[in-house]
Amino acid sequence: MGLVENSTQTMDEKEILAVAETALEDISAIRKEVGNVIFGQQTVVEHTLLTVLSGGHALLVGVPGLAKTKLVSTLGTVLGLDDNRIQFTPDLMPSDILGSEVMDQDDAGKRSFRFIAGPVFTQLLMADEINRASPRTQSALLQAMQEYHVTVAGTHHDLPQPFHVLATQNPLEQEGTYPLPEAQLDRFLMQVDVNYPEEDAERRILLETTGVEEKPAKAVLTGSRIQEIQALVRRMPVSEQVVDAILALVRLARPGNGNADTDRHVAWGPGPRAGQSLMLCVRARALYDGRLAPSVDDVYALALPILQHRMALTFAARAEGVHIRDVIANLVKTASGE
């Protein structure tokens, strides 16, 4: 079984082992510290951390009150990242996110423009209830999320590194919300579904969050260390078998590629960015689990959070009550030969 060379030089096994041991200790410390503040929700925490370790952005979808905001602020503290929060509202303007130029006048009366940076100039940006802002304002994040700089009045301004957007969205159809455009959804590495906690976790929430004091999170990493782990993830080897599994799954999800269920239920499927996202996230998941290389199981485990926001059902499928989760589950069965 051959190994696929990445665009950057691939480490040999000894090098990966040496660097990964330290990374595993750091990841273990992150998981422990986050677990002291966020009770239960292991899958949500895992997928959000995998997004950061892969260098991407995540969209957290769940009903109000499930600690989405608390998870993002906790991660900012634990990862040692500067963080800002933007509450998206219908009257929010692009300049409220990016910043704007103001005119200054010095003592000699000379006037000049000065750029005042907006809250996007941070390492971890929490876009709270992102679908409550207008499409125009939502699109202000597109360039930042893809190119890691913004343009104001024709001038480029680089964002701090690392830069991650963790956005929250309410899944309920409510007044005053705007669907995220497909182009912006595709910028999110994962869509992380935040469900209700298990009973034991909810009991712990009741007991430990209603007293006089709550245990605060502590920083265990720095931004520069996060970048080192992200570089390690990109240099981990990937077998031909895993690459084939990614290609097969992504292509099966597109209409016109020989899958009858896809042709019947899917209006449009994932583009190449979905495959790129899987290539990164399966490596991060392997490292998260203490392995030196990803397996085909990692591909199938991450199919839902990576594909679901990059696909759309046909009108007929929606009328029949078909859900995108069911479509992806069937695709995984087909791709795995079950």
Structure description:
The chain is an alpha/beta fold. The protein folds into two domains: 14-90 and 121-220, P-loop containing nucleotide triphosphate hydrolases (Rossmann fold, 3-Layer(aba) Sandwich); 236-338, Helicase, Ruva Protein, domain 3, CATH 1.10.8.80. It has helices spanning 13-35, 42-53, 68-78, 94-98, 135-138, 140-147, 182-185, 199-208, 223-235, 240-252, 260-265, 272-288, 296-301, 303-307, 315-319, 324-336, and strands spanning 3-4, 58-61, 83-87, 99-105, 111-117, 124-128, 149-152, 155-158, 164-169, 190-193, 238-239, 266-268, 312-313. The strands form five sheets. It has a five-stranded parallel beta sheet. Strands 1-11 form a two-stranded antiparallel sheet. Strand 4 (99-105) and strand 5 form a beta hairpin. Helix 2 crosses helix 12 and helix 10 packs across helix 16. It is globular and about 75 Å long. It starts with a strand and ends with a helix. Mean pLDDT is 85; it is low at 1-5. InterPro entries: ATPase_AAA-3, CbbQ/NirQ/NorQ/GpvN, ChlI/MoxR_AAA_lid, P-loop_NTPase. Keywords: ATP-binding, Nucleotide-binding.
Give the topology string: H per helix, E per strand: EHHEHEHEEEHHEEEHEHHEHHEHHHEHH
* CATH architecture field of the largest domain: 3-Layer(aba) Sandwich
Per DSSP, the total helix count is: 16
Task: Tell me the fraction of residues in β-strands, as a range.
Answer: 15-25%
Q: Choose one word for the global shape.
A: globular
Q: How many strand segments?
A: 13
Q: Helix share of residues?
A: 40-55%
Task: Give the CATH level 1 class of the largest domain.
Answer: Alpha Beta
On the 0-100 scale, what is the average pLDDT?
85
- Low-confidence stretches are 1-5
Estimate nothing, just give the exact number of structural domains. Answer: 2
Strands side by side in the biggest sheet: 3-6-9-2-10
Q: Which homologous superfamily in CATH is the superfamily of the largest domain?
A: P-loop containing nucleotide triphosphate hydrolases
Per the CATH scheme, the topology name of the largest domain is Rossmann fold
Largest sheet: 5 strands, parallel
The rounded Rg comes to 21 Å
Backbone structural class: alpha/beta
* First and last CA, distance: 22 Å
Family: Belongs to the MoxR family.
InterPro entries: ATPase_AAA-3 (IPR011703), CbbQ/NirQ/NorQ/GpvN (IPR050764), ChlI/MoxR_AAA_lid (IPR041628), P-loop_NTPase (IPR027417)
Keywords: ATP-binding, Nucleotide-binding
Protein name: MoxR family ATPase
